[in-house]
Design brief:
EC number: 6.1.1.4
Keywords: Aminoacyl-tRNA synthetase, ATP-binding, Cytoplasm, Ligase, Nucleotide-binding, Protein biosynthesis
CATH topology of one domain: Isoleucyl-tRNA Synthetase, domain 2
CATH superfamily of one domain: Valyl/Leucyl/Isoleucyl-tRNA synthetase, editing domain
Structural class: alpha+beta
Catalytic activity: tRNA(Leu) + L-leucine + ATP = L-leucyl-tRNA(Leu) + AMP + diphosphate
Distance between the termini: 65 Å
Radius of gyration: 36 Å
Family: Belongs to the class-I aminoacyl-tRNA synthetase family.
Strand content: 15-25%
Oligomer: single chain
CATH class of one domain: Alpha Beta
Number of strands: 37
Shape: globular
Number of helices: 30
GO molecular function: leucine-tRNA ligase activity
Bound molecules: ligand ANZ
Length: 940
């Protein structure tokens, strides 16, 4: 019988679905193991062969753990809110829910076809109301919490209110806004309800504030820092500007230190930890306070080098700094305003990255040096970022490069406090040695001591203190989009109110248009039925808004990362409609044991999820404060893009061999239009790119048109994608799974080459043939006892495959299987025991063929939970040795003897041998020398 993979794969996929083979139980005596994939955004293009790489690896691991007897949770779902569906809706009027559902269908078909062992009964979709009900619920929990620095955790807002009621806020240590006035318990009681709400907002872990945001006019929305690449939007490459808007923010900064510390407790890739560490950006230094001459104002700066304070020759404020308007003198007003307007157009990334253009303006105002009392000019400059530190710096041109460049540019004094001191990089690297010489109290001190002393002196003056600063900013949580989670929030007197849990979810309203409204409001501003009735407790028509019992609802929606920040916990109990998950479920599953996904989420999803998890932990909702013990980033699969070269300024296309000295522009051609010899299907290309339908093609002498090739990330936009559907059809999912693993180490990036798949496909055919006696039913094959060689092959394979899986070295397992099948075929092995064990080893990698052969071996149950074969060392050991038997040093014959024999037993066996007696011819040997495992020499 032939290896009919199409039929076999369809058969087992159906079997698994019907029998719910991979359903994980929340009640189990078995030990749990949770294997998670980053769930996909269901895009219109479907999966290409690069997407399943991580899913195949995690599936192998999940299946392996089932064979090991674990109760394995291996869920899958969809991160189904997002911009592409919304943009498609804007263009076509098609509701995003419809496109999303259609895309999910394609994804599901493609995932099923690859034979993944997902527990589909736990599927989640972030865009479904049953799911986002809990995203809204978490938002409410965060709103109702504050961060108590004394207990170092999030607490219920009621505990804060209790303190404010009894003693005011003087002794409250919280991570909160920094503009909160000190008030007493009496003040608090006397505040109006709105005033109280305003104050509490400054403490809440999610709050409304006027924030500087990255506004993308083309997309009509705010973007997070990680959604901007090189100053433009990651999606679409549109310009991004800074703008002040009232936005929801999440106080992730409260968790900065814990997010850093937690990295030491999890097994995640070092590069990923490094990028989170840099993103959080902890700096130790000091805050120093400078009085502003002629004003009742002070400027607080953050500096990592308080020891250089005697080198300050000017101060620089960020153009957005709130003091700028107050201190700028009439004389400089026009210049300052013009400058502020010009910089508003530059995104923060540009400002940080740009080292060449120096720009700034003088405010006309002066600050007073804390120690010398000298006047220091106050400038504004956009190299100082509004959102970092205090948005103001003390500028030390002899210590800081940007300050130096600024001083040079504007001809400001550059006092040298390092006169006669070695300030080379090497000298500075040795922090204990560099001597600072610039004042009475710092003279002669090594660097570290000088920093401490400067802080001490500032404190003595009451003008500074030691400070740790983090680069991590609070995360803006509002998006001006339609296709996202609505906030469970309505407004009374401008103050946000939460809707009670029992009325959730608040479902997305219908709108006519998915664009912002004409007055610039977010798309939900187009909805007619978008008001909250506090009596009927439901969403009602806007026309009913009376600000007495019916109030307007929030118009923003939540960002892309909201839905993915707790999905891993929701999978534990996804169909629970009363709670986000039951206590029993979370206590059993606890956390993710293995998480596999892309490294591009390092400072987005993976940081936000850790933040929410820590919050949930503080609230006693989850038992672990890190959600994933181990994480692996799968490498990227690259494609071989094809390029057609177009002559500059024209429509003439030039074959690769002829472009040498010409000015050409490379244009991507779809790889399906190119054959194995890099020749382009010209007609196909003309049809594919309409704008080149009438282009001229200059071919090589032999009449062919050659394209250039280059390895790039596999992506639809580069027209180099390979679709897994066609491969499954031609070679089967098992061949594809094996091949994706065979390509190379999981974590490395590697090029795709479809031609190579014949290798793993050929292997599966050989494997199939090895089971022939069982496939054709003639099971009586006379091999009841496994041969020694077969056992040796089997056990060395068990050992290697087990080690490989545990080290996530899946590529090396594939070659181990190939060797094993070659050896067993050569041995003509047809022993059931050996072949059963072998097919269990193969089953995590190639599950369909494994199920089929398992059933051919006579099993009626799925192979999925068959125990993983046990490796036994003894089969690898040689059990006997062919001893050379020598007489007076000359080898005469050999004897096969067990390696278990003692020296005496060996001697006795040799002496008893007929051939020995022949050699001795009745003589008594003088000596018999036995070296066990090596030789026997008879002397005499
Ligand atoms: C004086 C000084 C002297 C500084 C010197 C450096 C060297 P990190 O390590 O990144 O935390 N700074 C502070 N706030 C800033 C802002 N909002 N925008 C731009 N720069 C800012 O660096 C902290 C240092 O960066 C601070 O120490 C400050 O310059 C500058 F020889 O103060 B320093």
């Amino acid at each position: 019988m032939q290896y009919n993979f199409n039929e076999i794969e369809a058969k087992w996929q159906k079997y698994w679905a019907e029998n719910q083979t991979f359903r994980a139980e929340n009640n189990s005596d078995k030990k749990k193991f949770y294997v998670l994939d980053m769930f996909p955004y269901p895009s219109g293009a479907g999966l290409h062969v690069g997407h399943p790489l991580g899913y195949i690896a995690s599936d192998i691991y999940a299946r392996y753990k089932r064979h090991q007897g674990f109760n394995v949770l291996h869920p899958q779902g969809y991160d189904s809110f997002g911009l592409p569906a919304e943009q498609y809706a804007i263009q076509t009027g098609q509701h995003p829910a419809i496109t999303t559902a259609a895309n999910i269908k394609t994804y599901r078909r493609q995932l099923d076809q690859l034979g993944f062992s997902f527990d589909w009964s736990r599927e989640v979709r972030t865009s479904s109301p049953e799911y986002y009900k809990w995203t809204q619920w978490i938002f409410i929990q965060i709103f109702n919490s504050w961060y108590n620095t004394d207990t170092d955790k999030a607490e219920d807002i009621d505990t804060l209110i209790a303190i404010l009621e009894t003693e005011g806020n003087a002794n409250v240590n919280a991570v909160c806004d920094d503009d909160i006035a000190v008030f007493s318990a009496e003040d608090w009681t006397a505040f109006s309800e709105v005033e109280k709400q305003e104050i509490l907002l400054k403490y809440r872990l999610t709050y409304l504030a006027d924030t500087e945001v990255n506004w993308c006019p083309a997309l009509g929305t705010v973007l997070a820092n990680d959604e901007i690449v090189n100053g433009v939007s990651e999606r679409g490459g549109h310009p991004v500007v800074r703008k002040k808007m009232t936005q929801w923010s999440m106080r992730i900064s409260a968790y900065a230190q814990r997010l850093l510390d937690g990295l030491d407790t999890i097994d995640w890739p070092q590069p990923l930890k490094d990028s989170q560490t840099n993103w959080i950006g902890r700096s130790e230094g000091a805050s120093a306070i400078f009085n502003v001459n002629g004003h009742d104002e002070t400027i607080e700066v953050f500096t990592t080098r308080p020891d250089t304070i005697f080198g300050v020759s000017f101060m620089t404020l960020a153009p957005e700094h709130e003091l700028v308007g107050k201190i700028t003198t009439a004389e400089y007003k026009d210049e300052v305003e013009a400058y502020i307007e010009a910089t508003a157009k530059r995104s923060e990334r540009d400002r940080m990255a740009d080292v060449k253009t120096i720009s700034g303006a003088f405010t006309g105002a002066y600050a007073e040096h804390p120690f010398t009392k000298e006047p220091i000019p106050i400038w504004i400059g956009d190299y100082v970022l509004a959102g970092y530190g205090t948005g103001a710096v003390m500028s030390v041109p002899c210590g800081d490069q940007r300050d130096y460049d600024f001083a040079k540019h504007f001809n400001l004094p550059i006092p040298n406090i390092f006169e006669g001191i070695d300030i080379s990089e090497e000298a500075f690297a040795d922090k204990d040695k560099t001597i600072i010489a610039n004042s009475d109290f710092l003279n002669g001190l090594p660097y570290k001591k000088a920093v401490k002393r400067a802080i001490f002196e500032l404190e003595k003056l009451g003008q500074g203190k030691g400070k740790v600063n983090y680069r991590l900013r609070d995360a803006v949580f509002s998006r001006q989009r339609y296709w996202g989670e609505p906030f469970p929030v309505y407004y009374v007197d401008g103050m946000p109110q939460m809707i009670a849990k029992e009325h959730l979810p608040i479902e997305l309203p219908e709108v006519e248009k998915y664009l912002p409204t004409e007055t610039g409001e977010p798309p939900l501003g187009n909805a007619d039925v978008w008001a909250w009735d506090t009596v009927a407790n439901k969403v009602v028509a806007n026309s009913k808004i009376d600000h007495k019992t019916v109030f307007p609802l929030e118009l923003n929606t939540m960002p892309g990362w909201a839905g993915s920040s707790q999905y891993f916990n929701r999978y534990m109990d996804p169909n629970n409609s009363d709670e986000i998950f039951s206590k029993k479920a979370i206590d059993y599953w606890e956390d993710v044991d293995l998480y596999i996904g892309g490294s591009e989420h390092a400072t987005g999803h993976l940081l936000y999820s850790r933040f929410w998890q820590k919050f949930m932990f503080d609230k006693g909702l989850v038992p672990k404060d890190e959600f994933a013990k181990k994480l692996i980033n799968q490498g990227m699969i690259t494609g071989t893009s094809a390029f057609v070269y177009r002559a500059e300024n024209g429509k003439t296309m030039i074959s690769k061999g002829l472009i040498a000295d010409k000015n050409v522009v490379p244009i991507h051609a779809d790889v399906s239009l190119v054959n194995a010899s890099d020749e382009l299907d010209i007609d196909g290309f003309k049809k594919w790119r309409e704008e080149y339908a009438d282009a001229e093609f200059i071919t090589e002498e032999d009449g062919t048109f050659k394209v250039g090739r280059e390895v790039e990330k596999m992506s639809k936009s580069k027209f180099n994608v390979v679709n897994p559907d066609a491969i499954c059809e031609e070679y089967g999912a098992d061949s594809l799974r094996l091949y994706e693993m065979f390509l190379g180490p999981l974590e490395q990036s590697k090029p795709w080459n479809t031609a190579g798949i014949t290798g793993t496909h050929g292997f599966l055919k050989k494997l199939w043939k090895l089971y022939a006696p069982f496939i054709d039913g003639s099971q009586d094959n006379g091999q009841e006892e496994p041969s020694k060689e077969a056992l040796k092959t089997l056990h060395k394979t068990i050992k290697k495959v087990q080690e490989d899986i545990e080290n996530f070295s899946f590529n090396t397992s594939v070659s181990t299987f190939m060797i094993a099948v070659n050896e067993l075929s050569a041995q003509k092995c047809a022993n059931k025991e050996v072949l059963e064990a072998l097919i269990i080893l193969v089953s995590p990698y190639a599950p369909h063929i494994a199920e089929e052969l398992w059933s051919k071996l006579g099993h009626t149950e799925s192979i999925a939970t068959a125990p993983f074969p046990k490796f036994e060392e003894k089969y690898l050991k040689e059990s006997s040795k062919e001893y050379p038997i020598s007489f007076n040093g000359k080898m005469k014959f050999t004897m096969e003897l067990s390696l278990d024999l003692s020296k005496d037993e060996i001697e006795a066996a040799v002496m008893a041998n007929e051939k020995t007696q022949q050699q001795l011819q009745g003589r008594e040997p003088k000596k018999v020398i036995v070296v066990p495992g090596k030789i026997v020499n008879i002397v005499g």
